[in-house]
Structure formats: C-alpha cells, structure tokens
C-alpha cells in the first residue's frame, strides 16, 4: 500500500509537469500540428486544465491510499504536510481557473505545485506513528482546512507575482526590480535546496555529531549535507567529512539551519548562472511572455483568491486550531510560536483587505502584499517549524 | 441631534474605558488570592496528632494564628520554635495557634513535633482540603483570624520573633 | 444644521458626497470628472463632520480605518517580536529567567529579558494594543454601518446622469426598440438571480446586497470574541491548575473548595511496538520508544456537605472516566486533562531484620513511604521502631538531616531495632544503598528486600466560563467573513437618457466578473457592452 501511494504521488508530479508544458505551449502561442490539423494555443490551455484536474485526482489517490496504510490522515509530519500543501495549491488552481480561465496562472502555478511537492519529498517520508496529542479527529480537520486555505492564498501570491513581472519596469535598477529579483532568488533557493538534497542523498552523504541539546543532555545529530554550522558543542563522529566552521547555540536545530544556509547559497549560484546566461534580470526575461496578460484581470484574480482563501485559512488555522488546542493542550491559545505566526498571517491578510477596500491599494501595492503574505506562510511552515523549537515541531 | 450624538459617543467611550480600566486593574493590580484580609474565614474540621477534633468555629471569641507548614520547608522549620516560645504567653491572652501540616506522613510530623517539643495543636491536612479552601500556595503561609472569625492578614514567608509577636498582638481579642 | 438638499428633493446629512436617493454628486463633487468614490456609497461619515469636542476627536481617531490598519500592523510586529526567543512559559522551569536568557542567547537575550519581551503577550502595552484594536473595530463599524444602511435603503431606481457617468463600468448605446431590449435584459437578469426594480422605464438590477453587511457582522463577532478574552481577566471566570496524583491516591480537585475529589485507580502507558509493520521504519529513525497513549483511570467523588472543609464528610462516588490526552473528563463546569506523567515513583519499601553474624532473618516489614507506622512488631520480642523518616533526604545547610520535599525520591530511615539479644535497641541509618551504624557497631541490620513503585499522573484542572462567549464570537465572525467574502454586491443600472440607453454597473469587488455578467445579460440585444473606465485609463496611459 505504501508503494502504491508513493507511485500515485509520483504520477501526480509528472502530470503536473505535463500540465506545465501544456500551459507553456498555450501561451508561447506556437501552433502545433497533429493528425487532424492545426491546434491553437487555447486548446492547449484547456488540456493544461484537464491535466491539472488529473493531477489533483492522482494526488487524492495518493492521499487516500496513504491514509489507509497508516491509519491516520497523512498530514502529521513535514513530508506529509508539505506534500498536501502542494496538492492544495493544485486544488485551488482548479477552482480559480474554473472562474477566470487564465493560462498564465497555470503556467506559474503548476511549477510552484511541483516545487512544493518536491520540497516535501526532501523530508523523511516514512509513515510515522502519532504521539498522543495528535491522535484526534481535529488533526485532519485543522490541518486539511488550513492547508486548503493556504493553497488558495498561494494562488493570490502567484497572481500577484504575475502582475509584478508583467508591470514592473525592468529598464532601471530600483527598489521594485531588486525586490522582485529577490523573490525570484528565493524561489531559486528552494530549487537549490531540492537539488542539493537530492544530490547528497544520492551520494548517501551522512555526518554524525555528538552534541549537547537544549535540555543540557548529550544527544546525536545527523547531517545529510556537509556541515557549515555544527550543533552546540558538537563533536564530529563520522570520518572523512567536512568539519563545521561555526557552532550554533543549543536552542537552534543546527542541521536544519545548516540546510537553510546551503539552500540560500545554491540559490545564489543558480540565480547568477541564470542571469549570466540570460544577460538580463530574470524578471525582465520572463516579462515578454506575459505581454498578453491584462494587469487588471490578474489583479482581480489575486484579490479573488485572497478573498476565498482568507476565510478558509482563518477557519482552519485559527478557529479549528483553537478548538483542538483547547481539547489537547487544555487551552485554546498558548502563544506557541506557530500559533503566533498563524495570528500574524491572519493580521497580515486582514491588513491587506482593509488597505484594498478602504485605502484603494490596488495593482502593484496589492501584488506586493500578496507576495509578502505567502512569504509569511512559508516562513511559518518552514522556519518556525524547523528552527524555532515549539509544541508544533513535529518534523521528524 | 448634535447633542444626542455627543451623549451617545460619550457613553460608548465611557463604557469601553470603564471595562478596560477594570480589566487592567484586575490583571495587574488586584489581589487575586482566595483568602484575603477582610474576608470571613472558612470553617474547617481537622484532627490533631492525638486525634482530638479541631473545628475552627469553636475558636470564636479567640484570635487564631493559623499557620500552614511542612517539615520539608526550611523557613517553616525555623519559625516553629518561635511560635512555641510565644504560644504559652499568648494562649493566656486569648490567641490560639493551629499549625496545619501539608499532607505529610503522621510519623514524620510526630517525630518532628517531639524533636522540637511543640505543644500547640498540630493537624495534618490529609488530602489538602484546608490548604485548597484557603488557596495556600507557597509555604509557610500564616492566616491571622480575629475573635469574630474575620481574616485580618494573610502573610506568606518566614517570620522573625518580632513579627510573630506583632501578629499575635494584632489578633489579641479586645484590641 | 446645514443639510444638503439635492435637486431631486432628497435631504442629505452634511458631508454627503453622493445624494443618497438619486446619486447625484453633491457640492464640488459634481464638477469633477473622475470616477465617484463609492466607498460606503458616498455617505456622510459622522465622525468626519463633527469634530468639535474632545470626545469627538477621540471618536474620530478610532473611527479611522487608517488608524485601524496601523494598529493591526503594530500588533503584527509586536507579536512577531515575541517569537524571537521563547516566552518565559516555554523555558525550562528549573532555571531562573534572569539567568536563562543571558546564558542562552548572550547580550541580545539579556536585552530581550530586560525589555520584558519574555512575557510580551501579557505585558500591559500588548494588552493595550489588543484593546485599541477592539475599540477601533467597534467605533469604525458603528460609524459606517448606520449611514450605509440608510443609503442603501433610500436609493431609488432613476439615478442622476452624473452618477451613472462616473461609475467604473459605464457605457451608452443606441438601440431601435428599447422596450424589447429591456424585456430580454430583464429575463436574463432574473436568470442570474438579480432582483429588478423599475421606475419610469428605467431599470436597476441588484443582488447580493447582504454581502455589504459581512464586514459589520464579522466585526461584531470579533468584538464578542475580544470581550470574551477580556472577561478572562475578571476574577473567577476561569481556572487553570496543575495537579499530580499517584496511583491509589484520592485527592481534592484544586479550586473546587473541597467539593470534588479525584481518585487515580490506575495509570496506564502504552508504547508503539518497535517492530510495527507500518511504523517500524519511522521508529528506527526516532531512535527511541514513542508513546502511543497514556491514561488515568479516574474516579470522581463529591464530598457530602458538612458545613466545614477538612477531614469530615464522606466521599460519594459520582463518576468514572479514562482520562487521556484529547479526552478530558468533564464534570460540573470543570474539565480534567491528562497532560503528563512520572513513572515508577517509589511507594513502599520492604526490609528484613537480619542477624549480621548468622544471616538469620526475623520477619519482614513493608513500609508505606507515604504513611509509615512508628512501630512494627515482629513478635517474639523482635520489634522495629522508626525514629526518623525523611522522604527526600538531604543534609540541610545547618548540617541537620532533613527532607527536601514530601516525595519519597530518596527515602532515609533511622531505625531502632529491638531483639531479645539487644533489648536496649540498636540504631541504624538506612537509605537507598546506604546502611550506616551511627551509634556504634550493631549485631543486627535492616536488609533491603524490595521496593514497590507507582506511576504518578499529572492532570490539569480547567474551568472556563468565557468559552461560550468565545465560541459565539468566533461563529459570528466566520459567518460575517464568509458573507462578505463569498458574495459580492452588484448593481446594474439601465436608464433611458435622451433616447439612448445608459448602462452603469457597480460592485464592491470583482469588476471582471460583473462585466462578464453584464455581457451575458445584453448578449441577445443590440446593446453595446459598457467598459471598465479604470482599465481604459490604464491602457490610455500606457500608449
């Protein structure tokens, strides 16, 4: 069953790849011939849409089979959550595409879905048993609702990004172009992380450390990437591997911090290689593809996505979260870092809605906010989970 | 019209201000303990080491020096001899000591009392009922009750001889 | 009082931008060409028109959305600040916070502690922020809801030409038979679930007006929620107590005033099987046992009313439950939660009296560490007396044997052993792995035989009268949020002016969707589609 489940996910991944290709073809406008004759770009867009639906169906198959295998909803650790977030973005795309039929949105969303699923697969994928606090019907309700909410908000981000790449003037170096390049760099860092992880994983790289953990106890830590930052008072146990340059304090999960540093570094390399090859800013290189996008329309898509996603996120990430926290941890709110960041996400999107409705922040400002909002979501998922230790640190 | 609106706004703002002021007061300044000076003492029944029944209500007309303690608490241990010293003197003046032990084994308490030659009534609060009813958290805590059964003072922490004497004076009947 | 009378005859309050009835832009607003500001239908927001007194100024401050957004942003930043380092409640309980932050995080940690950020969320200024957020929500909503309600209620079908012209979606067209076109349009509008009003051959189609109330409803929910949070600071509104209870013990439930007692009949802990087919691989990674579940088999008693707390009054069993994480036991207004445990706490110890020379033993004594007896008579002249008992032995600072707590983590006994051979008694000092003879060489000794341990369960007692308020608040908030987010208020005006048909559309969001709908309703007529004037302008600016 576990193998069947993984295969479904793999198929889904490739179907999303095909969807990406279909949307690319639909936009680059080339006319492709097949036996019947000509086929226009728009038809390709529809194929892309069908493929994205197929991807979602395969994802559901993955989800259900894994659920049957493990006996609990597969949303209990980083691998499962990230994968499900990717799936949720896929769902959200299907919904939004049904309303607006924007192939550009598909062109950008499908790779993001693949990226998130690939990112999830970097975490240990075994079926893990649930600790007592997680054994609740609210695990499914809270996490699934939150992920779907975040998935829809992610569409707001994608649309915002499209708006920015479409409208920003790349001829001069200013705050806008630099910021946008930074966003693209961040996405490339994620790609870098996935590449680094896959390469060293294929090489079976492993470095073990003995160290003193946050409770002052001796413990061991395994690195799957060469250690730049070692754990607190870490002693290298494995021979023939790189020894760390600095050591992190005990409160920081050092191997995760190390991974973050590697990702940022590889993203940096990727970015400059691309820039060197393209001989211009990456945004500027993408811009011509988006000629056909109406900024008004994509602005509305991003707003619509936020307006749909915000209530779902609030319901899952705050209200259901509070109900469960009351049952499992005896209090509905405990200022755990993850809870606080969910509140911050809520406040941020609340500010976005007020700025848009009352202060008329449309277009570029609004698009930037969508990008920042998604950055907050990812920060909460990745950084707060992995680096700040708390009750929610269920990443095995 | 304009007048009405001003009244409306003033009253809404006043209600908000009052509610917030009370919230801040009760969170940052108010005494949140269960037994407070000025409250009527809660009646309880315990048995001393000899098995004699002790009911607080029966001490009406006397001042009660109600001390909560444990043998594992150094300041409690330290003030026991002081209380013993002043016990005889103030018993005549109408002040009674009740030392309520926090749920320790009878043997431990008995041996402790013998070792220090304590003669005032000591009762073990099995199941922490009295401690719970008085909301006692850190030990030692002393609750001073006057002859009318009203709590005069709740003191947490170790006491010097002078303090014990002052407290006894405070609840001496007829003052 | 200077009210504004529109040429249609409607009297508008001072400060109105657009006539509530016919929509004619009022005063200087009429001269401009750009699009109308349709926020709140152009009604007069009271706070902006009367700001004479101090009260009015305070009111206006909190009424401003700009101020509200600033409060949200500041709250957001403050909240983030609190996650840089762990809050005081999440640091190990054994260390002092003043040492912890400096030791763990160096100078910035020290600063964090000194600025009070280790207790940020209960600080007065954070509470003040949340309070001002609540005030802002309340006043801003009051200030906008009533005028908006009135404006939407008094609007009429026929609108002023300037109103139509300055809507974002606007267009004119000439058609031969207006009546016939309007009939088609009406049919299609009905299909799209619009409600249609007619006046002098003019049409207005409207739907989803209730979406306009969404923000106000969700704000009401938020205010109720915040009131619930505020009530938590009122005395007696909620209880949060931690208690330890060992197997076999019955103890009072804190804060119930001695009314309820809880007994722990058994504490059970289960681990996942390390060879589990499904989880085995993950268990190996975790590198240690993983707890599957733990539970307290609890019995709840109520004390018969005796008029006094203490040792009198029988306990009457009223309920039994298995308390697990996620499955609290509920009674009255209280809930008992399983939160923690301590395994294998010492409970009783057994010794035998042994002749050191011959190794002969004379009876066994089992000492209950929570209630030892003073004398254990073994018969035939053999007798053990316990001179002293220290459950958690420590040499005090003044070098006197004493106990650190009531928990028998390190029990020590001073025994006096009486035998027919030693009628004066011999003293021995016995603890775990210690057996001393402080008063000189003995003939007999107490030999340790066995211990019995018990598990201790940690429970949390909760009572919370604010929960119903929070639930109601949260529920109303969600309803309002959904109402405002998933529906849009749309209006389309079809008006005959100078033999032409003027079409104007307004929506509070999603203009693209509105235009699609207009395109659909005029699709079978020769009416031409109105344009989005914002988009037009954008295109014109580009070229």
UniProtKB/TrEMBL annotation, chain B:
GO-annotated molecular function: oxidoreductase activity
PROSITE patterns on file: THIOREDOXIN_1, THIOREDOXIN_2
Keywords attached to this entry: Cytochrome c-type biogenesis, Disulfide bond, Redox-active center, Signal-anchor, Transmembrane
Source superkingdom: Bacteria
Residues covered by the Thioredoxin domain: 35-173
Subcellular location: Cell envelope
UniProt key word Disulfide bond: yes
A Gene Ontology BP annotation from the UniProt entry: cytochrome complex assembly
Recorded GO CC terms: cell envelope
Origin species: Halalkalibacter alkaliphilus
Major site of localization recorded for this protein: other
Name of the protein this chain belongs to: Thiol-disulfide oxidoreductase ResA
Coiled-coil ranges (or none): none
Pfam family, one: Redoxin
NCBIfam families attached to this UniProt entry: PRK03147.1 (NF002854)
